[in-house]
Specification:
Largest sheet of chain A: 2 strands, antiparallel
Shape of chain A: flat
Radius of gyration of chain A: 19 Å
Order of helices and strands of chain B: HHHHHHHHHHHHHH
Helix content of chain B: over 70%
Distance between the termini of chain A: 31 Å
Structural class of chain B: mainly alpha
Oligomer: heterodimer
Strand order of the largest sheet of chain A: 1-2
Strand content of chain A: under 5%
Number of helices of chain B: 14
Order of helices and strands of chain A: HHEEHH
Chain lengths: ~100, ~240
């Protein structure tokens, strides 16, 4: 990984980050469009959860990880505290792997 | 910064600290993986400071370690980060109009800082959540990557600790409350199904972006509402959403 590649990725990523904060002021967005933007962020985050939970590369991630995330989801719905949710997810996945489930 | 800390309730601060801890463990493993794969320690360290996006850092280093070219690594990382563009629009209000805030604040835009910001309603709390989460995560991530790179192969397999389940669990906990609203839940679930179904066929990063296709009905509703109110009244009732 040469330095120019690191700098290129850094510059591209920064441009993606800066575009919203800079352009948002210049565009006069209707209220509906503003709501659409925050819905879009939620849609992307949920898609990120689903793909990170279920897939690895272009294949299935195995059962241990989605099982951990499922436990987390159930705990969130039961209003469990956030630390418990995260620790339970990791512990479920780790224990399943220890038990031979990949 | 001190007033930002006071604006947030203790629960939110605790949640941010926990996310920092979880990400620090992942960051340490990133540093260790890159160095034990044969890259010089400055590569993961420089990437973490300058790129500061975990998923794309793993992906880019993964491409290089698998024998791919640097351009392929850059393109893979860039596509993975494309979601930051809509995130930037969604949280633009917290960065205000000052250039210093925008230039600095944009760099700490991440999945996590976006999710913590979306969870707050009050403008002051949104601002505080964004900055505290963004800056704390930046510090935690970079220190952890440096330590991981120095420790190298001494760090064990983080998959055995189930840390790969922690990242989706964190995001799920943050985003789930917003799904009580049906106008968010329906496109979010449809988008998640689309993204997972497309994963075997598309390069990394694109499936998540494809989820935005689930917004098409909502976009059409917004566009239809944009004309004068008279046009809205004339709309057939059956089509209203």
């Amino acid at each position: 990984m040469p330095l120019f590649a690191v700098l290129l990725l850094a510059a591209g990523t920064y441009a993606l980050r800066l575009a919203g904060p800079v352009l948002r002021d210049r565009l006069h967005l209707s209220e509906g469009l503003e709501r659409l933007l925050s819905t879009a962020a939620a849609v992307l985050l949920v898609a990120l959860v689903a793909t990170a939970a279920l897939t690895q590369g272009q294949g299935f991630a195995g059962w241990a990880r989605p099982a951990g995330v499922l436990v987390a989801g159930v705990l969130v719905l039961r209003r469990a505290p956030f630390p418990l949710v995260v620790v339970a997810a990791a512990a479920t996945t780790a224990l399943l792997r220890l038990g031979g489930v990949s | 910064m001190r007033s930002a800390l006071r604006t947030l309730d203790r629960g939110t601060l605790r949640d941010i600290a926990l996310v920092c801890l979880a990400d620090a463990l992942v960051g340490a493993s990133f540093g260790a993986i890159a160095v034990s794969g044969g890259l010089p320690p400055w590569v993961p360290v420089a990437m973490s400071v300058l790129v500061f996006a975990g998923g794309s850092q793993f992906a880019a280093v993964g491409v290089v370690l698998a024998g791919g070219g640097p351009i392929a690594a850059v393109v893979t990382g860039f596509v993975l980060n494309a979601r930051l563009l809509p995130f930037g629009f969604a949280v633009a209000d917290v960065l205000g109009g000052r250039w210093r805030d925008r230039l600095l604040g944009a760099h700490v835009l991440t999945d996590e800082s976006t999710a913590f910001t979306l969870r707050q309603r009050d403008p002051k709390a949104r601002r505080a959540a964004y900055w505290v989460c963004g800056l704390a995560l930046f510090a935690a991530w970079n220190i952890a990557v440096l330590l991981g790179a120095l420790a190298g192969g001494a760090i064990g397999d983080t998959d055995a600790l189930g840390l790969d389940a922690a990242f989706p669990a964190v995001l799920l906990a943050l985003v789930l409350p917003s799904l009580t609203d049906r106008s968010v839940r329906n496109p979010a679930l449809a988008g998640a199904v689309l993204a997972v179904a497309a994963t075997p066929f598309l390069p990394p990063g694109l499936p998540v972006l494809l989820a935005l296709a689930a917004l098409v009905p909502a976009v059409r509703t917004v566009l239809r509402r944009t004309p004068a109110p008279a046009a809205r009244a004339a709309e057939p009732a059956g089509e209203a959403r």
